[in-house]
Specification:
The complex is a heterodimer of chains A (253) and B (412).
Chain A lengths: L3 H4 L5 E12 L2 E12 L3 E5 L6 H7 L8 E6 L2 E2 L4 H10 E4 L11 H13 L3 H14 L15 H13 L5 E5 L7 H16 L3 E5 L3 H7 L2 E6 L2 E6 L1 H6 L4 H10 L1
Helix pairs in contact in A: 4-5, 4-6, 5-6, 6-7
Chain B lengths: L1 H5 L11 H9 L4 H27 L3 H6 L1 H6 L7 H22 L1 H21 L13 H22 L4 H20 L17 H27 L4 H15 L3 H15 L8 H26 L3 H9 L4 H16 L1 H14 L9 E2 H9 L2 H4 L6 H30 L5
Helix pairs in contact in B: 6-7, 6-8, 6-9, 7-8, 7-19, 10-11, 10-13, 10-16, 10-17, 11-13, 12-13, 13-15, 13-16, 14-15, 16-19, 17-19
The chains are: A alpha/beta (253), B mainly alpha (412).
Amino acid sequence: MQSVALDGHQKEDIIVCEDVNKWYGEFHVLKDVSLKVKKGEVVVVCGPSGSGKSTFIRTLNRLEEHQEGRIVVDGIEMSNDIRNIDAIRREVGMVFQQFNLFPHLTVMDNITLAPLWVRKVSRKEADETALRLLEKVGISEQAKKFPGQLSGGQQQRVAIARALAMKPRIMLFDEPTSALDPEMIKEVLDVMKTLARDGMTMLCVTHEMGFAREVADRIVFFDQGKIVEEGPPAQIFANPRHERTRLFLSQIL
Amino acid sequence: MATQATENVVRPPRQSLGLVGWLRANLFNTWWNGLITLLMLWLVGQVLFNFVAWAITAPGWVAVITNMRLFFVGRYPAELVWRVELGVWLVALLLGLSAGIWRGLSLALAVAFGALFLVVAGFALFLPAGEQPKLIPTPLFLIGTTALIGVGYALGSRLGARLRWPVIIAWLLAYPLLVLLIRGFSAEGVLTLVDTNLWGGLMLTLLLAVTGIVCSFPLGVLLALGRRSSLPIIKWFCVCYIELIRGVPLVTVLFMAQIMLPLFLPQGVSVDNLVRAMVAITLFSAAYLAENVRGGLQAIPRGQEEAARALGLNPVQTTLFITLPQALRAVIPVLVGQFISLFKDTSLVTIVGLSDLVGMSQSIIAQPAWTQVSGGVWRETFLFVAVIFWIFCFTMSRASQQIERNLNVGKF
């Protein structure tokens, strides 16, 4: 605890965003968004729908292009250089609201495809990694099935395993439980909690405030394309400073 | 669960009426419905009776039987027909091997064609000896084909995985080998050259259709991908090509290839008639295929591509592994429909002087021996041709359903 006072970070910043701006046509979706995430930190991004939170985390692996500002992920500058984008995508895993598993491939092939073709690992190594990850998310018996044969919760856990198979240093979650039946939400959140405890750097867009309270190091609140408030969960829940945050929390809790 | 077992299970009511009940309920429920039913029965009976009466007594069947060789290989020299027969045997063996290795579709095809050849062999036994090609007589050829399918199957299922790659390579080599065998190369000697204007009948139809299907498929997929490209030059080239070709009838394309192409080519360079027709059919079909494939590509949710990109797959890998396989399986029925119509459209090459199955039957009808028969022999001839076309188109249609079943295992 002795070095904290020096400059405020004892760990390196793995994601640095400075004044990120983005427009959809004339519509200003992201307005001067600046955020730093430390290695191993769990950041929950929340806010009303249409506030730009999903768009924001999608700029971090270039599924959305930002027009102004600077994004540095794991020391790599996000630019139009395709090599930089590819390098960043190798380090960043992503889990989607609609799972986006590949329906024509088995669970096993879903997980091993990218390691085989992007990381170029051997078939044996890819299979071993996939089985280990399926065990970790608790569905190793489903390896030979197709995504359509699994429940929503199981599909989302496969999607998490698929992202982890690339051995990413950062995981992005875009509303991972919003498309799930209530009784399946817990099984996905449990996997995410395990991941957080293992020290993964995570950015989660989610409305699961229980999860945020328990796991998050920091909550970032978006409204109308801006970060209006951020801080540790205890402070945000107990004592939100911004009017919009207070309103949002009163409606969601 | 335990409580359910003790409850009374309520079964759905039985809805079967029995034959008489069904007739009563549907065909004879009022006096005038009964009248219409009887009238229709009488009409259908008349048509069937007349047809059978005609089919039994029709003089033209002799024309069909005596011209069997023209139907199948056109004016291909009789003493060299063994080369074509050898080619068919090669394909039969490969089909049998594939059936043994992969089962599924190839097994169904092997059984269907094996049975077909056996049935035809039954008829061929009655052929007069003088009508049969030398070296390999027809019954031997037909039964041999079935036997080779059987041998291939036995071999394929015995050796299985070890033969997988050799058979795939053999299929790829089969087409050039077949063309070489049928065409020959030397002025004299073992494989004397048989000019393509002597090729005809079913052999020509199949060559045109197979070439068209095999070549237009990759071309069509490339055009579909090109039309979705973000590079304007590629995109507009593909759009122009597709719209241009789709805007003109196949006959025009065939004529262009046949008559106008020589004007553009440098002096002394000539392209074989048959090749020109093949190119025309391929280019024509590719434009339609491209639009079908594009339809499939557009049905793939955007999330699929996003997930692939997020995993770090590059655009080529994303297309090859994620979007294209899903798009193609979604449009299998449409693609096969396209192939069936291509198969039938090959009969248009008659117009540019090639004698495919339909062209051949036209020249058979015009033979002096048959023009004297009252009413001519065109009914029998065209009926025979129609049956051959139907067998192949129906096979394709069934094959499509089989492919769908195979690919649908555990999907969605």
